């Protein structure tokens, strides 16, 4: 019978033992990705009769009302429980009027989906003006041509109330105005929508990875402009924590970091510091890079997709908004 011999070298820990078989690896996996973690971003366009492909987002389309309902029904069958809607209006103007029109395209789509799915589906609406403004900025422009923070807040409040009225469970302000969460919370509470959830795009960076999204919503920022005066500088992580804390203090129910992969340090820091659910948005450019390289046969697209979204969860995200939702759900089912 072997006895403990104090003089014997302590047995070397063999880390590979637990990696030997798929069953062992499955047993000890620290992170699991499931359909419950995923939110599908979907585009719905006013005034079209057939869904339109988006060249820079292969596999993603601008939906008609009808094709959106069908897509969400298929997602629901796959077990996906949440979607976030983005609208593409037929007409854009300086104030982004369509965003708060009760008969605007997103509001119509919210009512359709609420009718179809009741409370079985978490319905989110992106809350911003850029899809609806003719200058492509996320807010109203002041006389100096810069985005006017406080005038924009009044518009966000109107949009929030209309989206909640149309059936959004969750409104997701993405414009990065100071005070947007508190303003929206007050507007929702003051209009009988105290149960409407706010998912704050809290740490949203001025990223070059949003290009395909802007194709998807037909946004071109006027005069070759950009969003660096309101979205965050990619150089800054401490500032992201200030944004995240401010949004929670103002009443955010959930917070988001965006984009995902280049900001996993921020996701991890948010998870460590906050007790609200943390979301991460795996954005259009992140998706497009996988698709482009896979199309050339340079990477195994589905494997990279799982590795990337799994890494976002491992870093600490509770939920992931991703254009990969459908294909991951198909793979898991
Ligand atoms: C703004 C908004 C953007 C995205 C989501 N909400 C674009 C932007 O900030 O320029 C980008 C999402 C993506 O790239 O997938 N309404």
Question: Can you tell me about this structure?
Answer:
- This protein has an eight-stranded parallel barrel, surrounded by eight helices.
- It has one domain: TIM Barrel (Alpha-Beta Barrel).
- The chain is an alpha/beta fold and 333 residues long.
- It is built from eleven helices and ten strands.
- The longest helix is centred in the middle third of the chain and has 18 residues, at 149-166.
- It starts with 21 loop residues before the first helix and ends with a helix.
- The radius of gyration is 22 Å and the shape is globular.
- The chain binds ligand PBG.
- Residues 126, 128, 130, 138, 174, 210, 213, 227, 283-284 line the site of ligand PBG.
Short description:
This protein is α/β, with parallel strands linked by helices and 333 residues long.
List the topology elements:
Layout: H1 22-28, E1 38-45, E2 52-53, E3 61-63, H2 65-77, E4 82-88, H3 105-117, E5 122-127, H4 149-166, E6 170-173, H5 180-189, E7 197-204, H6 211-216, H7 238-250, E8 254-258, H8 264-273, E9 278-282, H9 284-295, H10 301-315, E10 319-322, H11 325-332
Parallel strand pairs: 1-3, 1-4, 1-10, 4-5, 5-6, 6-7, 7-8, 8-9, 9-10
Antiparallel strand pairs: 2-3
Helix pairs in contact: 2-3, 3-4, 4-5, 5-7
The structure holds ligand PBG.
Residues 126, 128, 130, 138, 174, 210, 213, 227, 283-284 line the site of ligand PBG.
């Amino acid at each position: 019978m072997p006895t403990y011999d104090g003089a014997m070298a302590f047995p070397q820990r063999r880390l590979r033992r637990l990696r030997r078989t798929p069953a062992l690896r499955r047993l000890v996996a620290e992170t699991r990705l499931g359909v419950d973690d995923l939110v599908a971003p979907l585009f719905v366009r006013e005034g079209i009769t057939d869904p339109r492909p988006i060249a820079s987002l292969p596999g993603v389309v601008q939906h008609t009302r009808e094709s959106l309902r069908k897509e969400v029904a298929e997602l629901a069958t796959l077990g996906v429980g949440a979607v976030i809607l983005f609208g593409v209006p037929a007409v854009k103007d300086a104030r982004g009027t369509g965003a708060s029109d009760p008969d605007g395209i997103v509001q119509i789509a919210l009512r359709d989906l609420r009718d179809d799915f009741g409370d079985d589906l978490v319905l989110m609406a992106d809350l911003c003006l850029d899809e609806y403004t003719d200058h492509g900025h996320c807010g109203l422009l002041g006389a100096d041509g810069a985005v006017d923070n406080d005038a924009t807040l009044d518009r966000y409040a109107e949009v929030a109330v209309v989206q909640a009225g149309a059936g959004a469970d969750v409104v997701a302000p993405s414009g990065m105005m100071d005070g947007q969460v508190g303003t929206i919370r007050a507007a929702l509470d003051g209009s009988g929508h105290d149960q409407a959830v706010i998912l704050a795009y809290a740490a949203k960076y001025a990223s070059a990875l949003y290009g395909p999204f802007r194709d998807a919503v037909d946004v071109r920022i006027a005069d070759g402009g950009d969003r660096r005066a309101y979205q965050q500088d990619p150089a800054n992580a401490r500032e992201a924590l200030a944004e995240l804390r401010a949004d929670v203090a103002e009443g955010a129910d959930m917070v988001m970091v965006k984009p995902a992969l280049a900001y996993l340090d921020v996701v991890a820091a948010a998870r460590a510091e906050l007790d609200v659910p943390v979301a991460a948005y795996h954005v259009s450019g992140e998706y497009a890079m996988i698709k482009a390289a896979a199309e050339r046969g340079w990477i195994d697209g589905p494997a990279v997709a799982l590795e990337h979204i799994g890494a976002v969860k491992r870093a600490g995200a509770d939920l992931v908004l991703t254009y990969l939702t459908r294909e991951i759900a198909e793979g898991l089912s």
